[in-house]
Every structure is written in C-alpha cells, then in structure tokens.
TrEMBL record:
Identification of the protein by name: ABC-type quaternary amine transporter
PROSITE patterns (alphabetical): ABC_TRANSPORTER_1, ABC_TRANSPORTER_2
One GO term describing the cellular component: ATP-binding cassette (ABC) transporter complex
Superkingdom per UniProt: Bacteria
Class of this enzyme: translocase
Protein's organism: Streptomyces paludis
Upper taxonomic lineage: Bacteria, Bacillati, Actinomycetota, Actinomycetes, Kitasatosporales
Keywords: ATP-binding, Nucleotide-binding, Transport
Keyword Nucleotide-binding on entry: yes
Matches recorded under Pfam families: ABC_tran, TOBE_2
Residue intervals of the ABC transporter domain: 2-236
Length: 350
C-alpha cells in the first residue's frame, strides 16, 4: 500500500550538505504495522515527513496504493498523523479535539458526534467528550490524540514517538493495547520510535535506520535473533560484540576461543555472543573472570564479568538460583547456539 523507492532528502548545500535519507526503499503492505527504529538523527522523522507530504524528496518517489504522491498535498493523502507532543487543542474539549479531522472534511454534526463516541469507546475513554483536555493525564491525552488521528479513517496511520513522553509502565501497557486495537481495526501503521522495546512489542516488522539508510529490516524475531551488523547488535543493547577470526567451528577472540554455529562464515568477522550463551562455571575451567555488577530483571539477572588481564567485560545472563556473588571468581565458557557471526571488521557501531 505504501512504496518508497530510492527516496533521498538532502539538507544544506556544498561540503556541509548531508543526506537525511539516502536512496531509501521501503514497502508496507495493507494492515501491516511497521516500526522504524534508529538513533537520533538517523532520518526516522524525515521518512515520515516525506510520506505525509511535509517534506519534498530531492530524489525518488513515494507511492500510496500505486499512485505517486509528488503532487498530492498533505490533506489529500489520506494519512493520519500523531506526533510525540500530541498537539491537542487546549481550548477545545475532548470531543472537539477528536472531531477535528471530521469537521475539516465537512462531516455533519450527527456524524461527528456518533464517530467521536465510537472512537472514545475504542480508546478506552467512554463518555470523556465534554472533559477539558488540560484536566487529562498524559496517558489519557495520548489516547485522545490517537482517537483524533483515527477518526477520519486514514488509510495509513503514522505515529512519531507516540508514547515518548509517558513513563515506562504506562508505555508498556499502552503499546500492547495499541497493537490489539490496530489488529482489530486492520489499520496500516508506520511508526517511528527510538525505543526498541516499544518497536518490538508493536511491530509486525521493524526497520532499523542508520545515517539515512536502512541497516536492517525483518520481523522482530528475525532482527533480534540475527542482527545484520555490529551496529544493529549494539543498537539492540547487546554489549558482547568483538572482532574475531573464524575458522571451522571456532573463533579466536580477545576472550580466547569461542565456538560458532555450524556453517558460519570464516575469516575476519565480528562476533555477537548473546548473554544467555555465557556459561559460568568453576574458576579452574574456562576464561577466569571476576563477577561485577548484577542487575535483577524479574526472574533473570544480568551479570557483568571482568576477565583477568584487563580484557573487555562480558555480559552474562543467569537465573536467580545460579547468580554468583559480586566479587566471586568464575570460569566462563560460551555456547555456540547463542553466538552470531556478523559481517567483517570495520563496522563497530560507534
Ligand atoms: N529542516 C532541517 N534542516 C536541516 N537539517 C535537518 C532538518 N531536518 C532534519 N535535519 C537533519 O537530518 C538528519 C535526520 O533527521 P531526522 O529528524 O529525520 O532524524 P531522527 O532519526 O528522526 O532523529 P530523532 O530521533 O532525534 O528525532 C539529522 O542530521 C538532522 O539534523
């Protein structure tokens, strides 16, 4: 339903010019929820702005349902937009805010009030129409902004950091609700966030951006299991990323030999060792490390290990019953099934 082909946006001119988007290709299917992720400045908002018609591309095309949008103004594209600061109209009540897009399209008063009631039910704020916007909590305002964006039945809903301002607990709850809601409505969604947890919980497919280009696209599980590069691995929060020389079933690393899965590509590579693949045993066997900080996350514990000889630290994950004491000596070994061989040497992700 949405096709971006070869989309380029440049800001500035001369030697200071830089591409906010660099020949980006992206397809979104009807009913798909796609989340664009990436560090600050990677081009996420610019991508949304191109689709919305708020930013003219310097090259390439944006098509909606096969039609080139170059000459189509913002309000005729049939896309709904919800931005981070949700920009509700403070002088209007909740109903006035939700009805905004319907009013612009000349809907009758009767139609407006029926649709407003329907949307407020949908977002879990039944009967909130007469309430003042200023008297709502952050989460409630977010729901009103969502109801306003959905009211005109956009063919594509675009969300820019939709839950950015809210505290983590509320965000985690809302993101699950949003996914359920979009699934029931069959809404096609293009969302932008820098929060990977949010993206992975919301999306059917994630797109990771770096410097105006797509670094990886895939289902949350695909990207999580097989990051395409050291950049993506680090962006996802993996710290055990080291240069390696792979030969046969083993890789030589700063931590000593690490087993790799069958059929891994050989040569100068980068290795990702997922924390679950770091095994702790007797200090007499394996790589000798001292246990550093421990972070308790539900039933799992993230443990930082400091290898002897000043080598880079290792992140391990273990269950509550196996967690070693801080300062204890342990012997570390690695499990091949949690090792991923990434592309070669220069992409450190910094
Ligand atoms: N109007 C503009 N004029 C000049 N440069 C711009 C403009 N808009 C964006 N840029 C630059 O383009 C690049 C991409 O910006 P963009 O806002 O798309 O990134 P982002 O990934 O959305 O970042 P953030 O997560 O911080 O919102 C950045 O280097 C930014 O400084």
């Amino acid at each position: 339903m949405l096709t971006l082909s070869d989309v380029t946006v440049r800001f500035g001119s001369g030697p200071g010019a830089r591409s906010a988007l660099d020949a980006v290709d992206l397809e979104i299917a009807e009913h798909e929820i796609v989340c664009v992720l990436g560090p600050s400045g990677s081009g996420k908002s610019t991508l949304l702005r191109v689709v919305a018609g708020l930013q003219r591309p310097d090259g390439g095309r944006a098509l909606l349902d096969g039609a080139d949008q170059a000459a189509v103004p913002v309000h005729r594209r049939g896309v709904g937009l919800m931005f981070q600061d949700h920009q509700l109209f403070p002088q209007r009540d909740v109903a006035g805010n939700v009805a905004f897009g319907l009013r612009m399209r000349g809907a009758s008063r009767g139609e407006q009030s029926a649709r407003v009631a329907e949307l407020l039910d949908l977002v879990g704020l039944p009967g909130a129409g007469p309430r003042a916007v200023a008297a709502l909590s952050g989460g409630e305002q977010q729901r009103v902004a969502l109801a306003r964006a959905l009211a005109p039945r956009p063919r594509l809903l675009m969300l820019d950091e939709p839950l950015g301002q809210l505290d983590r607990g509320l965000r985690e709850r809302l993101v699950v609700e949003l996914r359920g809601l979009f699934g029931r409505l069959g809404t096609t969604v293009l969302a932008v966030t820098h929060d990977q947890g949010e993206a992975f919980a919301l999306a059917d497919r994630v797109v990771v951006m770096r410097d105006g280009r797509i670094a990886q696209t895939g289902t949350p599980l695909e990207v999580w299991q097989r990051p395409a590069s050291a950049f993506v691995a680090r962006f996802l929060g993996f710290d055990n990323v080291v240069p390696a020389t792979v030969k046969g079933a083993w890789a030589a690393t700063v931590w000593g030999p690490v087993p790799v899965p069958d059929g891994s590509p050989e040569g100068e590579r980068t290795l990702l060792v997922r924390p679950a693949g770091v095994r702790l045993g007797d200090p007499a066997g394996g790589l000798r490390c001292t246990v550093g900080a421990r972070a308790f996350r539900g039933g799992r514990v993230a443990v930082t290990l400091r290898p002897d000889g000043g080598r880079p630290p290792i992140e391990a994950e273990c269950g509550l019953r196996e967690v070693p004491d801080e300062g204890a000596a342990v012997g570390v070994s690695f499990a091949a099934e949690d090792v991923v061989v990434l592309a070669g040497g220069d992409d450190t992700g910094d």
